[in-house]
Amino acid sequence: MINNVKTQTSAQGVDRRTLKFEIVLVMALSLGQSAVYSLVSFADKVTRAPLGEQTTTMNNPLNTREYFDLTYQLLDILFALVPVVLALYLMRRSTGTSLPMIGFDFRKPGRDALWGAGLFAAMGLGTLGVYAAGRALGITTALSTANLGDYWWSIPVLMLSAARHAVLEEVIMLGFLFTYAGKLKVGLWTTILASALIRGSYHLYQGIGPMIGNVIMGVIFGWFYHRYGRVMPLVIAHFLLDAIGFVGYLVLGPAIGIGA
After folding, report:
1. Is residue 260 part of a domain?
2. Is 56 helix (H, G, I), strand (E, B) or coil?
3. Domain extent for 175
């Protein structure tokens, strides 16, 4: 009880300037940084050739030697999650918000899994539709989502990469950002739209179609998080989307003529 009182008092003592600085700090070390690079990448692509004629590769090799590549891949995943730890620490210190309070826990595994699977099904169909439309209109690059090579560890690493993206994006874009926006008295729909636009911006390197699709997904995920107060179903849905996209491409791509 004493610890809880101290946490609440500390959170109440944090001023608005500190909260804003912590938002900027976390975003600059994670998805805000990705958004800036994505915008530059998009500018490079649109001034180079039509988007429809280009290919965006993901999950690329980091070394030509197999086990050094594996080491670099695992280190890349590990260090990409450090901003999540920072965000959770700052939330606890500055706002008194714990993991259960944002629903980033395993208290409701069945319900979270059902919601996650349902959101995955809905978002998966929508993603495919937006991607197909974008390709038809020439505003989306072709996506090559798994380029690690034919190693025994390729699928496990792709699964870990999917988990990394799911945890990083949903914890920061929803749990962290919404918590801080609430403390700063930012309106609900302003928060939802800002989160969705940032989400879309760091996917812009793939083309306009994925950017639009992710903005829509961000609005839906933001509303869901506000309504139910749990990040975990959204982490599950995001993980399934990426895992199927990465592993499915690796396994089925060559069979249908699109893999390496």
Report:
1. no
2. strand
3. 2-254
